[in-house]
Amino acid sequence: MEGKFAGVIINRLALNIDRMFHYSIPDGLLGKIDIGSHVTVPFGNGNKTVDGFVLSLSNHSDFDGTLKEILSVSESGPLFDREMLSVCQFLKQKYFCSYISAVKTVLPPGSGRKNKVSDKLIRGSVLNVPYDEAFDALEKLRDKAPKQCKILELLIQNDFVADSDILFLTGAGYQAIRALKDKGLARQETVEVFRLPIDYESIPRSASPVLTEEQQYAVDRICASVTENQNNTFLLHGVTGSGKTEVFLNCIEKALEIGKTAIVLVPEISLTPQMVTRFAARFGKKIAVLHSALSMGERADEYKRIKSGEARVVVGARSAIFAPLKNIGVIVIDEEHETSYKAENAPTYHAREVADFRAKQHGAAFVLASATPSVESFYQAKQGNYQLISLTRRPTAQNLPTVAVSDMREEIKNGNRSCIGLSLQREIRKNKEQGEQTILFLNRRGFSTFVSCRSCGFVIKCKNCDVSLTYHKAKNSLTCHYCGYTIKKPEVCPNCASSFIKEFGAGTQKVEEELHSLFPDLSVIRMDVDTTSVKSSHRAILEKFDKEKIDILLGTQMVAKGLDFPNVTLVGVLAADQSLFVDDFRAGERTFDLITQVCGRAGRGEKQGRALIQTYMPENSVICQAQEQDYLSFYENEIELRRQLNYPPFCDIISVLLTSPVLNGLLSYAKKLARSIHIVMQKDYDGAFELLGPSETSVTKINGRFRQRIWIKCKMNRKAEDIFARLRSYHINEKNPHINMVIENNPFGAI
DNA sequence: ATTGCCACATCC
DNA sequence: GATGTGGCAATC
């Protein structure tokens, strides 16, 4: 804590005060203020005070004017340290967010709010005299006051006993406790208890099972990095059920052994009790969990346990990457391809990139794990930047499910208009007869609708961008949301001239109705956003499916991942094509992943599993590769496409999104900006770049705001970062009263 | 965001 | 001249 001057970020969202303000530290506060301190300062005209966070300390200030003094500092000490400050700077630079939003993402849970999360305190008693005296008193009280005597015994045995426990265990009343206090034998105390999201008592500890040769090899490689403080990145590519989790657990064990800590990121959806239990069984109270289902109190308390060093392994969703651990030995990202690792609000960070940054700072091993790695990560592995480790076998001699494809064009030809084809109907029936369960997955992603031909499967795509054109009902037009290319919706299929050309879309409710009429004797349970709006019902539905042996579980994305029911032997993918043709260059990757994951839900028990993929385009390469469960072919194909069209990992894509409640002026401003960006890029950027748009977004209006987007494809580097930071300041200085700008680095999806 | 300041309009 | 309003710049 050095320096008489502090750089403070004001806790306000206004963009034009998003910079450091300097204050002098009064003598009374010297030594109490450090980086991360939460302070109140005078700000602006009048005697208004605001709160803010200290981001820098120095001995001199080059501000020419009289500095004001810091008024007060929060008693509870700094809210983040220098490492987290560097993370904030990383977030600001890479994701073009304000200082304050960067700071807020690393703050302890609850501390950004007005009403602070209160500590949970319990009242109890402690011994107030040395043991000798207590024993003497015990004898004196033996006959006269048996209740007090019992309490005294409790206090001798335990350092602290909660009042409620005393009452429960001894049957005494408050008078007895008070009597002991009056005698000076006991003293009232209040301690803080942590609200623990996990019931550790109920989870028996378990040791590592014997590892397979492949698992052991992976553990050895990663552990070597952990023990030698080497920041290596590993891509753990393992088929579903190949025991990746066991590999993490062993690496973490090693890290703990040598006094280091670990972070494990899991997608929110797979942060199931099953998963958490596995970690708790291995590491007990050394783990802390962080995810959105926790109450504010639980979150705050888990954070404290991490900060204090009691919890040394953090298992959590995306934001757990900001856990304030010291001396991190290994960071694991499970299912690293999952899109939920990308934040949707500012700062729109990708947990993988933040993890990479932190791993470098700690000299930690960085492990990315997936059965279907992101194309970006696999490319890094192929380039030799990541070390590729493959797990090709399942520890239990269980076979992968067999996958078959069912051609829905045939169904249409045969007059079956149902979204459940005859082969799938047969399989569902067969499963019922064998007393086994079925999961049906309805692939329905994104907001946009594409147009396809029911007769030949042809999908109308953009000439320039290799993404599907999006259907706009009002205009009866088709538009590309990358470059703006627009055509009128054709009346007949350009490929086969059939008039069965229509926009796509079927909901789970409709499918549910159909299932009821096709199989009146089968029980169906539906799981999607509508049925799971209540927080706990997600789990309740799955429990019901399992316990009551419901015949069919029908759902969207939610049923694709992480479920593990041994009696499920059949998985049906209702419209595999759907996710192939959203207006996103990652559509192929998404589809391959979804089909692979959902097929992996079949045959997790003893019995052989099977999956049936319904599609209008069985010859599509992604569908074929998913059927073969051939990731490598998929990757080779996809990386070639990305190379040809210059998509990540060959370049970065920056989105400049402009929104305004009034249409007037938005487009002209967007065009003006696009021209300026082009000029500046030509002047100041050293390398090839491409500028697309401005174009309308697939959802033209959100929250009453119209949207225009400019895309810039270039390789992100310091010069590009600088250009976009300048673009942001330029827009702020423009003080355009209506138009908002959001710059995003490699956004996911194109809404 | 919030404030004070300045120019200018409005009132009687 | 007194009072009111909108744009605008500055906030350590």
TrEMBL record:
Gene3D superfamilies: P-loop containing nucleotide triphosphate hydrolases, PriA, 3(prime) DNA-binding domain. SMART domains: DEXDc, HELICc. One of its GO terms (molecular function) is hydrolase activity. Zn(2+) 1 binds at residues 453, 456, 493, 496. GO terms for cellular component: primosome complex. InterPro entries: DEAD/DEAH_box_helicase_dom (IPR011545), Helicase_ATP-bd (IPR014001), Helicase_C-like (IPR001650), P-loop_NTPase (IPR027417), PriA (IPR005259), PriA_3primeBD (IPR041222), PriA_3primeBD_sf (IPR042115), PriA_C (IPR041236). CDD domains: DEXHc_priA, SF2_C_priA. Residues 488-642 form the Helicase C-terminal domain. SUPFAM superfamilies: P-loop containing nucleoside triphosphate hydrolases. Transmembrane segments: none annotated. Its cofactor is Zn(2+). Its EC number is 5.6.2.4. It catalyses: ATP + H2O = ADP + phosphate + H(+); Couples ATP hydrolysis with the unwinding of duplex DNA by translocating in the 3'-5' direction. Keywords: ATP-binding, DNA replication, DNA-binding, Helicase, Hydrolase, Isomerase, Metal-binding, Nucleotide-binding, Primosome, Zinc. Residues 225-391 form the Helicase ATP-binding domain. The keyword Membrane does not apply. GO terms for biological process: DNA recombination; DNA replication initiation; DNA replication, synthesis of primer; double-strand break repair. Binds 2 zinc ions per subunit. Zn(2+) 2 binds at residues 462, 465, 480, 483. Belongs to the helicase family. PriA subfamily. Initiates the restart of stalled replication forks, which reloads the replicative helicase on sites other than the origin of replication. Recognizes and binds to abandoned replication forks and remodels them to uncover a helicase loading site. Promotes assembly of the primosome at these replication forks. Component of the replication restart primosome. This is Replication restart protein PriA. The gene is priA.
